[in-house]
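Thread: "does anyone have the structure for this chain?"

Original post by V.I.:
We have the sequence but no experimental structure in hand. Need at least a predicted one for the grant figures.
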Amino acid sequence: MSTPETSRFVRLRVELVLEVDDANAVSKAALRRIADDSAMPADERAHAENAVTEDTAEALAYLVDPFDLVSEVPGVDLAQASWSSEPIDYDPDSPEWDLDEDDGDEDDDEEVGVG
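Reply from O.Q.:
Generated one for you, C-alpha cells below.
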C-alpha cells in the first residue's frame, strides 16, 4: 500500500561473503565477460583485463551485477546501484560475523519525514 508520504524507492542492502576455491576460474570468467562487452572502449578493456587478472575481488565485481539480482522481480526497476568487493579475513565462528545482528548505524540511515 502506498500513501503520498511513502517513497516508492527502497534501499535493499545485501552483504555476501564468498569463498573462492578457484581464483583462476573466477578471473577467466571475468575475462570472458569483458571480452563479450562490445561497448567497452579499448583503453577501458585493457585496464579491466589487467585488474581482473591481478585481483580476484575485482574479477568478482565484474561478474556480480546488481541488475541481474532484480531484473526478473515484477513491479520494480533498478534506479541506482553501487557495489564493491574486497578480500577479507573471515571467521564464521566470530561474533562479529553474526548476520542476524542489527547494524549499529541502522537508525542513522532512516529518513524522517517533515510534515
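V.I.: this helps a lot. The first helix runs from residue 23 to 36.
O.Q.: and The two ends are 20 Å apart (CA to CA).
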